[in-house]
Specification:
The protein is mainly beta. It has helices at 58-61, 112-121, 167-170; strands at 6-11, 19-24, 27-30, 41-46, 68-80, 82-85, 90-93, 101-111, 129-137, 142-145, 153-161. 31% of the residues are buried. The active site is at residue 122.
Length: 199
């Protein structure tokens, strides 16, 4: 199974106005994977509290939310600013490619029910926006052959990012791998521990 070449022309935010242009021409091969790139299944890249051993991973484990199967670990092909902000110490990936780091995360194959559940949980479209990124895989059952020799890419994974942010947000320290237990004391405060329902 193959996909056509994809030209991505990404205009960065108005604060750091750069344009990133890249071309991917990939042939996907797969084995022993639950989703097998079937209809009504999507790939999702998570980098924050939805990861394994993080406070909101139960959202992916709860069968009532839909289906989610772990595919593998990886990192974004492009650099993005991953910051922690607000009184709840929420991790945000800012949609400003070319700044920050290539961010570490996990890829899941999810059904449309889980996607709708997570959209609501993440406050799409007002709090977070669901966009797409390319991911270089570290491991997992999905094998991806790419034009980049020696690398394994997934061209399109959904991701929850912030599309609007301030210069102050961009001035925050950038992370490459979120872990609520090792962020310099900036522990994420889950919803049930907050005094209000604020996200």
């Amino acid at each position: 199974m193959s996909t056509p070449a994809i030209d991505l022309h990404i205009q960065c935010c108005h604060i750091c106005p750069i344009t990133v242009a890249t071309n991917y021409s990939t042939a996907l091969r797969y084995h022993n994977t639950v989703c097998s790139f079937l209809d009504n299944m999507d790939l999702l890249f998570v980098y924050g509290t939805l990861k394994v051993s993080q406070p909101n991973h139960n959202q992916l484990e709860d069968k009532e939310n839909g289906k989610a199967e772990f595919v593998g670990k990886g990192r974004t092909v492009l650099q993005f600013p991953l910051v922690i902000r607000g009184k709840w110490n929420i991790p945000y990936l800012l949609n400003c490619p070319g700044r920050g780091h290539r961010v570490v995360g996990e890829v899941y194959c999810i059904d449309r029910t889980m996607l709708a559940t997570l959209d609501q949980f993440e406050g799409v479209p007002t709090h977070f926006q669901r966009l797409s990124v390319a991911v270089e895989m570290d491991d997992g059952p999905v094998l991806v052959e790419a034009t980049h020799q020696g690398t394994h890419h997934l061209d399109k994974c959904y991701i929850y990012m912030k599309d609007t942010f301030s210069e102050e947000d961009l001035a925050l320290p950038y992370l490459d791998n979120f872990d609520t237990n090792s962020n310099g004391g900036l522990h994420y405060i889950p919803l049930h521990e907050r005094q209000s329902g604020e996200k």
